[in-house]
Amino acid sequence: MSIPAWSGRRAGEALLKVKAEGRRKDKPCIICKQGIDYSLTYPHEQSCSVQHVKSRKLYPHLTWEPSNWEPAHLSCNKAAGPGEDLGMGVTSEDW
Ligand SMILES: [Zn+2]
């Protein structure tokens, strides 16, 4: 099963959605649990990025599922590995 590419207009729209919801609910980073300054924009390290709760690698069909998106700092997202598909944020029971 191939992983859908996370790019283009769809990824941009997903980020806008995650940022809007994160800002409204004052959601912290799902990786480090610290607050996110939603006024920062890409490519600022502390800006909001889309983290897939269930990794795209293991759950490629959830790539475009909004309920699988949570905000994470861009730096945290990057630290999780190349791309955002290495399973950071996956809870233990998912494994
Ligand atoms: Zn973080």
Describe the structure in brief.
The chain has two helices and two strands.
Percent helix among the residues? Answer: 25-40%
How would the global form be characterised? Answer: globular
* Count of alpha and pi helical runs: 2
**Which percent range describes the beta-strand content?**
5-15%
Structure summary, number of beta strands: 2
Assembly type of the shown chains?
Answer: single chain
Q: What's the number of domains?
A: 1
- Describe the sheet with the most strands: 2 strands, antiparallel
Structure, explained:
With 95 residues, the chain is α+β, with helices and mostly antiparallel strands. The protein has helices at 8-25, 74-79, and strands spanning 48-52, 69-73. Strands 1-2 form a two-stranded antiparallel sheet. The longest helix has 18 residues, at 8-25. The radius of gyration is 12 Å and the shape is globular.
